[in-house]
What does this fold into?
Amino acid sequence: MHELYHENSKLFPELARELARSFSGADDAAARLTGRAFRQYPRAEAVPLPDADVPSTALADVLLARRSRRELSAPIGLGDLGVLLRLALGPSAVIEDEEGLPVQALRTWPSGGGLYPIEAYVVAQRVEGLDPGVYHFNPIAEALERLAPAGDVDAVLRDGFFWQDFLVDASAIVVLGAVFHRTVSKYGERGYRLVLLDAGHVGQNLVLVAELLGLPSLPISGYCDDALGEALGLDGVDEAVVHTVALGGRP
Ligand SMILES: Cc1cc2nc3c(=O)[nH]c(=O)nc-3n(C[C@H](O)[C@H](O)[C@H](O)COP(=O)(O)O)c2cc1C
It folds into this structure.
């Protein structure tokens, strides 16, 4: 029940004071919490994302032109996909430790507490220069890491999106997974709200950058949580699918 959930995740002065107390005086813990909010699959085959030109269209024009579009079957170029993922998902800066190892990737979306609970995956069906498959976006390497999905891409799209024609035909779908503990371990029940708000910010970045590039896009909440999560190897508890954005190439 949303009423109950909303009530239980309200912030009030006493709780705010308690949370503030738990944040202060624990610098090491805070640093650990806000560090490394990204995942990498070092053993996966990695496909580097090529550079490509970014159009200089004014933000106002992009905002006014954006529409949800359902003709998504034209192939997408890997260059376009690379620009889309880099601009929509970051990183905009990488913080390194004394040894030069990345400890945090700041992203192009604002994140509650800077905790970045969102991981992004791409179900690629018709991307020129990329084998059809399921990939994880690595923001440090700016590469796609190939995962071993349960089933082929066709089955992932059919079972993940209830056989909806325009989604089964989509050239690519970006799936956003939420690693809840990154945010909930700091903010408790309220953290769940923050995770979903983060996903909304990422989704908006994706559809606006798609519009900038002239690519049709469609945010979708009509996915089968368990089928899609299983295909990506998410357990649905510690990490679960919270949003998806389908993409096509230029018509
Ligand atoms: C969170 C979210 C979920 C959505 N889910 C679906 C969906 O499952 N199927 C669909 O056809 N459109 C979906 N849409 C697209 C909306 O129908 C669309 O944004 C709305 O009708 C307004 O049209 P516009 O985006 O062209 O301005 C979704 C949009 C959002 C923001």
Q: What stands out?
A: The mean pLDDT is 92.
